[in-house]
Specification:
With about 130 residues, the chain is mostly helical. About 70% of the residues lie in helices and about 5% in strands. It starts with a helix and ends with a helix.
Length: about 130
């Protein structure tokens, strides 16, 4: 009897396409390989940014020019720190949006070049008749 129970087959429930789709929609999305690479490359940059944010005092003599120059100093200039903050606020388009925008630029460039070519051809004909 013990042998019969150990030989019982376990029946697995077959997963339907609908249940797989619902499961995929609810499961957390895995980060793309590019994002993982960027995040691992960003680690040293974060360490550098911490050093750049740190402010230092320069040892100066206690005279008039020394007091004037004895201000808080940072290794990275303020312009670059503010530019980095602005870049962090940028929302980059998705791959699909990028393709759409690229296609729109190509179509606009083709239409505009055709219009310029037609105008150039027409003006060329007009000036040749006028000058000859």
């Amino acid at each position: 009897m013990a042998e019969e129970t150990s030989k019982k087959r376990r029946i697995r429930k077959v997963e339907t396409v609908r249940s797989r789709t619902e499961k995929a929609a609810t499961s957390p999305k895995k980060p793309r390989r590019l994002r993982r690479t960027v995040s691992s490359a960003a680690r040293p940059l974060r360490a550098v940014s911490r050093v750049g944010k740190r402010e230092y005092y320069l040892p100066m003599p206690d005279n008039r020019p020394g007091r004037f120059l004895n201000k808080r100093r940072s290794i990275i200039p303020r312009y670059f720190r503010e530019a980095w903050v602005e870049l962090r606020q940028v929302i980059w388009p998705s791959r699909r949006e990028t393709w759409k925008l690229t296609l729109a630029v190509f179509i606009f460039a083709i239409i505009f070049s055709v219009l310029i070519a037609i105008t150039d051809y027409g003006l060329d004909k007009i000036f040749r008749k006028v000058l000859t």
